[in-house]
Amino acid sequence: MLDLIPSLGRWQPAVSGQRCAVATIVAAGGSVPRPLGTSMVVSEHGDVLGSLSGGCVEGAVVEAALAAMRDGGSRLESFGYSAEDAFAVGLTCGGQLEVHIQPTGTAGLDLAALRGFAHADAPSSLAIIRRLDAGGGAGGGPVLVADPVRFTASGSAALAALLGGDASVIRAAAVQLEPLLRGGRAGLVRLAPAEGCGTTVPVPEPITLFVESRLPPARMLIFGANDFGAALVPAGKLLGYDVTLCDARPAFSSQGRFLAADQVVTDWPHRYLAAEAAAGRLDGRSVVCVLTHDPKFDIPLLETALGLGLAYVGAMGSRRSHRQRIDALLADGTPAEALERLHSPIGLDLGAVTPAEVAVSITAEILASRVAASKETPTAASLKDGSGPLHHSEPSFTDEPRTHEPRTHEPRQEDPWT
Fold this sequence. Notes:
CATH topology of the largest domain: Rossmann fold
Strand order of the largest sheet: 3-2-1-5-4-16
CATH class of the largest domain: Alpha Beta
CATH superfamily of the largest domain: NAD(P)-binding Rossmann-like Domain
């Protein structure tokens, strides 16, 4: 839902107060076009804002959304692939989607409240927690979180209302909710209800929450105002990073070719990095690329960076420079296990030579390190040499029973060009 908030203030059906239904991808498996949390809003007149699959299932989702507005109830729709029904609606890419459809005005879902976050001063951090199971109708509306990093489940009266006020359920929710919120991720949270355990009373449907969290862009800090830094700045911006270029030499950092960076800083690299960490402006998503290739800058900078728990630390240099760098860091007391996190020489082995090619090599390694950190796949490889789904989304399909039995849409037979 968060992806549509910037557009809600300009979308006429929402502005005019028409009844609408929100369709959100809450589970996905295999190769799917869009990630968890992607939403589409359908008005009572059939107008559409957003897209879930690039065209594969939108028509069926619109039909289901109009039906949900007519009967006033939420529903869960499944879209998959089957060769048995060549004319059914579904994903020709072979993936699976579960789409939750909820009319506005039910369980407190209010587009007007969400539109309030579409203004120019809207927070760059925002999260929404929605309850999807049938028991959520009386517990208030979705919980809007303006500061996901500092959110605590125990301190939220809105979340307590959503979960029925049971302290044990709130504690169980915190274990799953808070990592999703602080990581800027989306996902399902399933909780055992407080009632029904150890009795002959039928066990209620599990409490099911859907969490979407948006954080400010992760930071990329590039140290070294040289040709390689100039090439890496736009590459980092292309990946969505907030890019800082830092160099201790004013004659180099003041050059106009670095103006594409979000910040250009003239300071000693290790001193600047330590100050940013102390100010809380770095987190576990931040990446550091050391391109200075000068031991008087590199050694104190890498000592600082390797002690901060950053997502990626890479340093440019030859293999000889790398060995000398490792010896110097060990001599200064850097633990050997910290050095295992250092990507040096920096980048994937793509045969890169020019600064632009090296920038591709570095950003490719950063992407590969994200995947390795999630334990979804251990190394980067060519897609042509692999097998299985192209998109490594977190497993989210389960065999748990649901009160709302989804209607399954099976796609047409396999397209050999997909």
